[in-house]
Specification:
314 residues; alpha/beta; TIM Barrel; eight-stranded parallel beta barrel; 14% strand; glycerophosphodiester phosphodiesterase activity; GP_PDE_dom; hydrolase; EC 3.1.4.46; Glycerophosphoryl diester phosphodiesterase
């Protein structure tokens, strides 16, 4: 029995979660596996990006757009069809233990429902529909994490999993194993303790963790993190090319976010003049993964994402 299978069994026994919670949702988007789905292993892929001056764009909350709500498979498919390959999504858990995609504690902003995600059953949640960021009602329903993972495995997309407080890294890992999506997932950590927890579950998981040079990387390695499977998160406040260089000298790729509050985020500042050349400047300064609320516009303003596809596939 392989390593992943053993971990699945162990996590099921420890968590007490019923395997049925990972059953794919009926009617979920599930593209067929094609040649385009094949991609080099994640550590090799990110090394390739760094070594060739390529950038991969990560769509925050799946890249919502008019008619396409956040944290929806249909939204990710729309962006995927337009060249985006990495999607940050938020993972929450319903009252009856089903992992779903939802950013807020409450349902009010992004669905036709009301109340807390943790107080609703999957049957109730799946009967709701999602609302886009312009308050437009869509025909899309909140998806199971399992269905998003299967979509990513089949399409070749990469999902950054942002754990909400209603669930655990262990439960997320169980879903990843069940979907066979280990090479399509990056776990997000917010501190060294979380990074160590992810590494303890499975040191083969790719993850993001805060790091701005060799000292931070060494501290993470001391907690069990494999630096080859580390993407160094460097914040959203100000680009830090010096930190990106220090990370690269330790063979670690850097991520930075231009996302944030509308009107104040770097996304909006960079695109205010209709140019967006600053996005390419980030790549020229050594950035490897760009997290953005405006993925298609960022992609149109830079060439480093095209360099990434040409050199590393996608």
């Amino acid at each position: 029995m392989n390593h992943s299978a053993l971990l699945v069994i162990a996590l099921i026994l420890l968590s007490g979660c019923a395997p049925s919670s990972d059953t794919p949702q009926s009617g979920a988007v599930e593209p067929a596996i094609t040649e385009a789905s094949a991609r080099m292993p994640l550590p090799d892929y990110f090394d390739c990006l760094r070594e060739n001056g390529g950038v991969v764009i990560a769509a925050h909350r799946g890249g919502p757009a008019p008619g396409y709500p956040e944290n929806a498979i249909e939204t990710m498919q729309f962006n995927f069809d337009n060249g985006v390959r990495v999607f940050e999504i938020d993972v929450a858990e319903t009252r009856d233990g089903v992992l779903t995609l939802m950013h807020d504690d409450r349902l009010n902003r992004t669905t036709t429902g009301r109340g807390y995600v943790s107080d609703i059953s999957w049957e109730e949640l799946s009967g709701l529909t999602l609302v886009d960021n312009d308050d437009g009602h869509t025909r899309f329903s909140p998806p199971k994490l399992t269905d998003a993972l299967i979509w990513a495995r089949n399409s070749g997309a990469i999902l950054e999993l942002d754990r909400k407080k209603t669930t655990s890294f262990a439960n997320m890992a169980k879903a990843v194993y069940a979907a066979g999506a280990e090479e399509n997932v990056i776990m997000i950590s917010y501190n060294d303790d979380e990074a160590a927890e992810i590494a303890a579950i499975d040191p083969q998981f790719m993850m993001t963790a805060s790091a701005r040079g060799g000292r931070d990387i060494a501290a993470l390695e001391a907690r069990g993190v494999d630096s080859r499977r580390l993407i160094a998160w460097t914040g959203t406040g100000r680009p830090d090319a010096a930190a990106w260089d220090r990370n690269a000298r330790n063979d670690v790729e850097s991520a930075f976010g231009t996302l944030g509050r509308s009107g104040e985020r770097l996304d909006d500042i960079y695109l205010a003049d209709g140019n967006g050349s600053e996005f390419q400047d980030l790549a020229d300064d050594g950035l490897v993964m760009l997290a953005t609320d405006r993925p298609l516009e960022a992609a149109a303003a830079m060439t480093a994402d095209d360099t990434a596809i040409a050199a590393c596939g996608g």
